[in-house]
Amino acid sequence: MEFEVTHPFHPWRGQRFVLSTRKQNWGEDRVMFYDAEGRLRSLLASWTDVAGPDVFIQVAAGRSFVRPDDLATLAALIAQIERSHGG
Predict the structure, then answer these.
(1) Spatial strand order in the sheet of 2-4
(2) Sequence-separated contacts (24+) of 39-44 with Cβ below 8 Å
(3) Mean pLDDT for each 10-residue chunk of the chain (87 residues)?
(4) What's this model's pTM, rounded to 2 decimal places?
């Protein structure tokens, strides 16, 4: 099975690779493949077409690359840092 790199800012965008395996690695859904030099590489599965279209990306249509739940997590982290520094 082949997959294509679809992340808009990745230097391999548009390139196709043969999928070696897909697994949870470092707590992330990743695809594993061999590059042109035969080195084993991995990418986030969400940066490829392996998982199918991402509904958020489709709806955002390039207007936002940050998910609302990620923004809420960031805001909570900032608040925690402020509290720990007396802010």
Answers:
(1) 2-4, 16-25, 28-34, 40-44
(2) 43/5, 43/10, 43/12, 44/7
(3) 93 96 92 95 93 79 82 94 87
(4) 0.62
